[in-house]
Amino acid sequence: MTKIGVLGLQGAVREHVRSIESCGSEAIVIKKKEQLDEVDGLILPGGESTTMRRLIDKYDFFDALREFGQSGKPIFGTCAGLILLAGEIDGQKDAHLQLMDTKVKRNAFGRQKDSFEAEIDIKGIAENFNAVFIRAPYILEVGEGVEVLAVYQDKIVLAQDRHYLACAFHPELTDDNRLTRHFIQMVEESKKELATS
Ligand code: GLN
């Protein structure tokens, strides 16, 4: 069975576990870097990116997470996870894992809109997807070869760069598992490719 890890340092961990299990895959909450060897793909959940980064450093996850991605295993960053994956963060000197060719902006939908829901269309994956945004970032710029999969109010809220996927909203907070299923398909394909390479 395909095993999907959820980084379990902070944030919406349990909700992702539920969503993965609803899709028929096995979910493993990752609390130690050694557990990364057990999984075929990884979700970086929403939460608070600076807190999560602090815990990533504290528990010595930084290099292990970069190596996980560089080995070709898929990573899906949701909300704070999108910030962790970005190559650049607007207004900040240093970014975090820098695995995706994206530039992101934090808390980018403004104060009044701290949290809201919107129906978005996800290219080739889901029409009328109810997206929950909570102090959401968005993607300001993408590099060549990055596919923009959803836009809301002219802002990029979902993109895929090779085996990396990142969204600005929280797909784990509703019962609509179509995006999680898309990620699991990415993981299944990469598993096959990595097995034959
Ligand atoms: N704004 C948060 C951050 O910067 C992300 C919010 C979220 O994950 N819901 O980390």
Automatic annotation (TrEMBL):
Pfam family, one: SNO
Organism superkingdom: Bacteria
Gene Ontology terms: cellular component: cytosol; glutaminase complex
Biological role: Catalyzes the hydrolysis of glutamine to glutamate and ammonia as part of the biosynthesis of pyridoxal 5'-phosphate. The resulting ammonia molecule is channeled to the active site of PdxS.
InterPro entries cross-referenced by the UniProt entry: Class_I_gatase-like, PdxT/SNO, PdxT/SNO_CS
Amino acids binding L-glutamine: G47, E48, S49, R106, I134, R135
Assigned protein family: Belongs to the glutaminase PdxT/SNO family.
Reactions it catalyzes: L-glutamine + H2O = L-glutamate + NH4(+); aldehydo-D-ribose 5-phosphate + D-glyceraldehyde 3-phosphate + L-glutamine = pyridoxal 5'-phosphate + L-glutamate + phosphate + 3 H2O + H(+)
EC annotation from Swiss-Prot or TrEMBL: 4.3.3.6, 3.5.1.2
Residues annotated as catalytic: C79, H170, E172
Pathway membership, UniProt: Cofactor biosynthesis; pyridoxal 5'-phosphate biosynthesis
MF annotations from Gene Ontology: glutaminase activity; pyridoxal 5'-phosphate synthase (glutamine hydrolysing) activity
Matches recorded under SUPFAM superfamilies: Class I glutamine amidotransferase-like
Gene Ontology biological process terms in this record: L-glutamine catabolic process; pyridoxal phosphate biosynthetic process; pyridoxine metabolic process
Keyword tags: Glutamine amidotransferase, Hydrolase, Lyase, Pyridoxal phosphate
The protein's name: Pyridoxal 5'-phosphate synthase subunit PdxT
Subunit and partners: In the presence of PdxS, forms a dodecamer of heterodimers. Only shows activity in the heterodimer.
HAMAP family: PdxT (MF_01615)
